[in-house]
Amino acid sequence: MSQLPTADDYLPGHGDRSWSARSYELDLSYKVVGNRLAGEARIDVEVLERTDRLVLDLAHLDVAKVTVGGKAPAKFEKRRHRLVVRLREKAAAGTRLALVVKYGGHPRPVVEKHHGDAGWEELSDGVIVAGQPHGAPTWFPCNDRPDDKATYRITVTTDVGYTVVSNGLLDERRRRGSSESWTYVMDVPMATYLATVQIGRYDIVEHAGPVPLFSAVPQGTGRHPTDAYDAGFGRQADMLRAFEGWFGPYPFGSYAAVVTGDDLEIPLESQSLSTFGKNFVSEEWEQVRLVAHELAHQWFGNIVTLRHWRDIWLHEGFACYSEWLWSEESGRETAQWWAEHHHARLAEADQDLALVDPGPELMFDDRVYKRGALTLHVLRSTLGDDAFFDLLRGWTSEHAGGSVTTEDFLAFAGARTGTDVAGLLRPWLAQKKLPALPR
User: Which residues form the Aminopeptidase N-like N-terminal domain (predicted)?
Assistant: First the structure.
């Protein structure tokens, strides 16, 4: 039995570099009671390397039928969390294939050694999908690697009374008897782990902003927002305007925050939307900062995405620094204060993490977030605000829709600013011992 591919060492058993998805069309039917999912995925495949098979990621769900170009393949089989499709003949690089997979079952999260559980998860009355980093295969067959971006059209049919929120713009909403279909279109290429579906009994609260901006909140709370809600979610339009000034135009057609009726351990990042538990509705900075953090990911993580998971600081360090910027902008502590505060705390922590390659077991360690933010603060302090924010705007503009590495950022920053950014930041990125914070 041939060995199945791994696209990224940080996530063994996911992804196939011999092909790429150009688009996904997902047609899903879901029964909340009983947690039953039936789906059809239509995938526009581009072959990148000559091959006679396509390996997809699909966990816990059964496959009923597969076609390639309208015909049955030579063979298909499930092998644990993978779907292996054998082609009738070898396909050359550049070949486009229309792959259709019909599947279904009772979706549930995938549990990975270093990253815990992620994926399709039942709430007390509804569903969340936590995609990062390995949850996408729990609800659709895909090429689950962060550098494989595609457009999406997602239709979810479920019981009347539930609201469905997914990536992109709502294209169609149609009721048929006791069920209702919601179709969302994400026409900006998106990594698999950023695709999501949120289902619940929600009210929609609209916010006046530079793009369509809304929150989906538990029914009843939207009509009577609290001061705690307004402190964070009520200021999303202000955050977005501030971030556009620092990072460049908001990159998608809309933005949504979903607030579930359940408590969640952490917020969930997705392209064009973020998801929070009701426990994040608070006036306290520890909750408000995360509203800013998840919004910042739309620039750092979503429109500009890492090529390899080892470069996760390009997402989390930037989003963490955005918290400090919002703190400064909203009249709380300055970014300098936060830098000194977290540098002191990191100095007391274990010195066993290199930011550019923390290892799969530490990729979501809080030190990656804070040390990444400190790295950016050092860069800002050296360049000055004008050059620093010009750099960030240039970075998101030049690499919009792309996949990047740390080396890409260092090269771009050096060329943009005429400064030896690589030399300045290497100690912060590569050495495990925490450098001194410049004064």
Answer: 22-194
